[in-house]
Amino acid sequence: MRIPERRISTSVLVIGAGGSGLRAAIELAERGTDVLVVSKRPRADAHTCLAAGGINAALATVDPEDTWQQHAADTLKESYLLANPQTVQIVTAGAARGIEDLERYGMQFAREEDGRISQRFFGAHTFRRTAFAGDYTGLEIQRALVDRAAQLQVPILDTAYISKLLVRDNVVFGAYGFNLDDGTRYVIHADAVVLATGGHTRIWRHTSSRRDENTGDSFRLAVDAGGRIRDPELVQFHPSGLIEPENAAGTLVSEAARGEGGILRNGLGERFMSRYDPERMELSTRDRVALASYTEIKAGRGTPNGGVLLDVSHLPRETILRRLPRVYQTLMDLQLLDITTTPIEVAPTAHYSMGGVWVRPEDHGTDVEGLYAIGEASSGLHGANRLGGNSLIELLVFGRIVGEAAAAYSARLTAQQRSASALAEARAEVDELLAADGPENVRALQRAIRDIMTERAGVVRDEEGILAGLGALAAVEARIENVGVHPDLAGFQDLAHAFDLKAGALAARATLEAALERRETRGCHNRSDCPALDPALQVNLVWSGPGRIAREAIPPIPDEIAALMHDVSTAGKLVE
Ligand SMILES: Cc1cc2nc3c(=O)[nH]c(=O)nc-3n(C[C@H](O)[C@H](O)[C@H](O)COP(=O)(O)OP(=O)(O)OC[C@H]3O[C@@H](n4cnc5c(N)ncnc54)[C@H](O)[C@@H]3O)c2cc1C
């Protein structure tokens, strides 16, 4: 049976229905620009829904001394000087407006009795500047954005997998993809395309991403189109992800569990934080706890399953039920484990991609004309360590800016050249995979990549391990040529997984090659063979394909912001 191919035309195509994609689409629709959103997951269930803790803006509702300049200084400090100062200033100066937009869309923020938006501490912030909605901030943001997009009648096709961007002479003219349910092909012609397709943390074995999200699609789509990736090696690891069950490995156990008095022990029963941060012990920072747990596990002092134990069972049961209800419920649901009596087995988990598609700071345009990237897919704001709560505000600020920029680009376009050969290539790529009948199993190869990344590019890396990882990855890349793809009655998910696998392999290569090149320890990137920070490496590493990495200078920090940069204590500020 011949599978139909649908042609769709729009002014701006937004790929991704998470917070960043929806915010961009709303901006476009409010400006009267024709927009289409496509997504491989249901709109109400994008990764953004998982965000719990909050969203930053120097609203000064609780601490009147706060300013956007201080927010910028804290962000740059936390980035270990790898964030782009212009990007940081745009986000921090535009943050209050991002919150106003959310209020306008009907988001229900937590408020003080007099109606001011509540703000709390969230990691290394000088002041309380994190707004929130209970412990479900991401879910509430997503709800408000989905509702606003519906009011504006933004069309959202959320069973569509985009397999290739359509480009002619370095100018994007649309995208190619297929329907996940019935395989219908899509040729989508557009003046401009916005990549809002998330990060690449799913290529580690333990990850706070769910199955089939953050598979590195942004990397593959952008590089294939002629774009580049900045700092793919900079990945934030959260200290406490679950180990079991396998299909939920990496699900976060809130840092509140340590904040409330939880104790960490290794497989020998030792309270190991005394070796790493004897003063703060379990209240040490996220990166230090992740590093300590990783070191214990690597040294063979982990549990038989390769984790450490996080124990709250010494706390009164009422305290646990009142202060840690979500942790209690999650462990009951996933493992039938009662945390009031039994320790939780956890391991560091890949949590956030700080690197991503190379974009210009001012409008998040990429190297390809008409192609933009936003949200976790993009790069520039976080450098070598992300300040908690900054990613959600980035979605709002750059969603608006990119919507505005793409609308203007579309309006001034007088003619667009398409390319029959680019379309033929996109079509052939899907045809070839559908015909692939080799012996290799896609899921098994995805797992092989996750094993390589976990063993060779986890919390701590070294040259020997990274080189071994690259060797193992080359073997997996060869096996990818022999996969079998078998869509069935249930749909074309198997085809999507095959593309996810290709994306994961490319993201893994970019990450390993950049991790090799960054011969220093800085922020989240720990090199046991290069334990010091190297001032010469205060640059971004820009990857444009296998073996091609360039160093990019970072513009200077304006004096008024630099003067505000100082060490910020994180004591008592443990939250995701
Ligand atoms: C447990 C958890 C807690 C967090 N808490 C916070 C917090 O408190 N504060 C904070 O600031 N940040 C937090 N974060 C981070 C934050 O949630 C994310 O960085 C952010 O939501 C990413 O949004 P996004 O729009 O960039 O991408 P996503 O929400 O990941 O959306 C990506 C979209 O792209 C689509 N897509 C991808 N590939 C394709 C393709 N090939 N074809 C079609 N569609 C595709 C997906 O279906 C999806 O719709 C947290 C993250 C996690 C996991």
Q: Mind explaining what this structure looks like?
A:
Helix 13 (442-456) packs antiparallel against helix 14 (463-480). Strand 6 and strand 7 (171-179) form a beta hairpin. The chain is globular and about 65 Å long. Helix content is 36%, strand content 17%. The strands form five sheets. Strands 1, 2, 5, 6, 7, 8 and 15 form a seven-stranded mixed β-sheet that branches. Strands 14-9-18-19 form a four-stranded antiparallel β-sheet, covered by helices on one side. It has helices at 19-30, 68-78, 85-104, 137-151, 217-225, 256-259, 273-276, 286-301, 317-323, 325-335, 390-412, 420-435, 442-456, 463-480, 493-517, 559-562, and strands at residues 5-15, 35-38, 55-56, 130-131, 156-157, 160-168, 171-179, 185-195, 229-230, 235-242, 263-265, 308-311, 344-353, 356-357, 371-373, 460-461, 526-527, 540-545, 548-552. The chain contains 16 helices and 19 strands. It is of the alpha/beta class and 576 residues long. The structure holds flavin-adenine dinucleotide (FAD). Flavin-adenine dinucleotide binds at residues 15-21, 38-41, 46-48, 50-55, 137-138, 160-162, 196-198, 208, 213, 217, 252, 352, 375-377, 389-392, 395, 576.
